[in-house]
Design brief:
The chain is mostly beta strands. The protein has one domain: Sandwich (Jelly Rolls), CATH 2.60.120. Helices cover 0% and strands 55% of the residues. Strand 7 and strand 8 form a beta hairpin. It starts with a strand and ends with a strand.
């Protein structure tokens, strides 16, 4: 059995080696942009793989908004390992002018090492202002930004 994603296929049965959730401080801050180019959000998660042949499955659901009715919000993942960054996964998009929970933004990445990996959500959208996170002041909450990383045996 396999799960087919746009990024690739995850064959099952597979063994989950670890599941990571971020701290509140890694997701609670609102990020805004008016850029038509991708910028980093404050939604991130760190995971140190137990095996270099592992696959990381990222699952998130974020509170998003664009204040222009004729605009889209776009999202993707950025991975940083040992100071080197790369983006991956398909661009996900939702239409603006509504507060929405961005559907599952899923990424699959083969790690090829056991160094610490930071996965950060990026966003763009123009015209208008994009918002990631429901509130500009949400101490002690996840601000409707949810994310987890699963390390799957390779």
């Amino acid at each position: 059995m396999a799960i087919n994603f746009p990024e690739g296929t995850l064959d099952l049965p597979t063994k989950i080696l670890q599941v990571k959730f971020p701290s509140v401080d890694d997701v609670r801050h609102r990020t805004t942009t008016t850029s038509g180019s991708y910028v980093d959000t404050n939604v991130k998660i760190d995971i140190t793989p137990k095996s270099s042949s592992s696959t990381i499955l990222l699952i998130s659901s974020c509170s998003v908004h664009n204040n222009a009715g004729n605009s889209y919000l776009y999202h993707r993942w950025k991975r940083t390992v040992s100071g080197s960054s790369a983006t991956f996964g398909p661009d996900a998009a939702v239409h603006g002018n509504l507060w929405l929970m961005m559907p599952q933004v899923t990424g699959i990445d083969v790690v090829n090492n056991t160094a610490s990996h930071e996965f950060r959500l990026q966003h763009k959208g123009s015209p208008g202002t994009n918002y990631i996170g429901w509130s500009s002041n949400a101490p002690g909450t996840f601000n409707f930004n949810y994310i987890c990383a699963l390390e799957c045996e390779g």
